[in-house]
Design a protein that fits this description.
By secondary structure, the protein is an alpha+beta fold. The protein is built from 5 helices and 4 strands, in the order αβαααββαβ.
Length: 153
Amino acid sequence: MKKLTPFLISCVLLFGAAACDNVAKTDSDAPEPGEVTEVPTPAQTQGAKEDGQSEVRRDQLNSDIRAREQRDQAAGGVTTDRTAEDLASEVRSKLEANIPGGKLTVKGTEEGTVTVSGTVNNQDQLAKIQPLAKEISGVKNVIVNAVVAPPQG
């Protein structure tokens, strides 16, 4: 038993460290930061749109966003100790809830800068990225490297 406990703790820590390397994405097919992407097929776009616009998914995302905002307010609105991963995760949730069908990758920094890369379906969605990201507490600067790539078909 004495040898099993340190082994289990080590496994949990190793798994946690490996999980922290992931970049926040709005879709599993979203590109890695800086990766050149192909235009999504109509079927891919429709599937993402249906998932992103489903009532259950939107409720989940909005509930998550509200819970984070309430937590921040309960902490006095202080956001200076936010991690880059936390900022990226919150921005990703906000974009996912409001830009269905987008294939976006979000990367954050400790200084409050978030970089959004990937594709959206139209110019209106592209224009929404910066204002939506700035709604997240702690985001000071938004770099938009996303492009418009309407679905093929």
